[in-house]
Write a structure and sequence with these properties.
The structure is a homodimer of 116-residue chains. The first copy, chain A, has 116 residues and is α+β, with helices and mostly antiparallel strands. Chain A has a domain at 44-114: Winged helix-like DNA-binding domain superfamily/Winged helix DNA-binding domain (Arc Repressor Mutant, subunit A, Orthogonal Bundle), CATH 1.10.10.10. Chain A contains 5 helices and 3 strands; from the N terminus they run ααβααββα. Chain A has a 3-stranded antiparallel β-sheet with strand order 1-3-2. The radius of gyration of chain A is 18 Å and the shape is elongated. The N and C termini of chain A lie close together (11 Å). Chains A and B meet through α1, α2, α3 and α5 of A and α1, α2, α3 and α5 of B. Chain A binds a DNA duplex (30 and 30 nucleotides) through α4.
Chain lengths: 116, 116
DNA sequence: ATCCTTCATCGATTCCTGTCAATATTGATG
DNA sequence: CATCAATATTGACAGGAATCGATGAAGGAT
């Protein structure tokens, strides 16, 4: 549903030059939803976090595994994990004192589908 | 080469818990390059611009075709087109008074490849 | 030459974002 | 209960980004 670049469901109006407002190929609301998802991954630290989790056992990791390799403060890592979680890309599970973060494959599929 | 989510070229070290700094699955430089490309498309207006151009004849459009449907000022549209062009996603060609912008399919492929 | 159209650039403003230090919260353990 | 360890939240700050109005540059047309 998120697909932006594939010729989508919306009708393609004849492109008239200058003056006629054509049907928008992509509605503002859908563009904003898609942009919100892309914003979540348009950050080097968050890309590194996703890659680190992907390469961990069971595609999950606790915060303590993630802070050191990236070299940023613990609150900063926590912040980025929150952004990714709120975007639906990570699932958070608390086990005892530890918080485990795992990838959400379906949401990554959404991401992959945007540009076909 | 941009692929972030596919198990990549880098070796996957055994994920030790807390204290041992593992090999980073994704280098900072590569993460920054990828994030820069994603930033270019992580904006609703720029997504709409890409979709509008894609649905135009020959997958190209002049600025005058793009300003009205999106409903933002001409300088703002010009700014966004510059961002997309500098990211390599659009190619700019001047014909007389008009500036034509066309998609760069290879660069869109890079985008699609990031999340496989 | 003069004017008009198209587009880019500049300057200013406002809002958003990444980062950290400090603090709070939560859970385990003695 | 007191304490420690692991995370989350808060507040502050600096830099970045989206937007607009005004202006500039380049090309056509009269």
């Amino acid at each position: 549903m998120l697909t932006v670049m594939s010729t989508a469901t919306s009708s393609v109006s004849a492109p008239a030059c200058c003056g006629i407002t054509p049907e928008l190929a992509l509605s503002r609301e859908e563009a904003e939803r898609t942009a919100a998802l892309l914003k979540a991954v348009a950050d080097p630290t968050r890309l590194q976090l996703l890659a680190l989790i992907r390469d961990s056992e069971g595609a999950e990791a606790c915060v303590c595994d993630l802070t050191a390799p990236i070299g940023l403060s613990q609150p900063t890592i926590s912040h980025h994990l929150k952004v990714l979680t709120e975007a639906g890309l990570l699932r958070r599970e608390k086990r005892g004192t530890w918080a485990w973060f795992a990838l959400v494959p379906e949401r990554l599929d959404d991401l992959a589908a945007i540009f076909r």
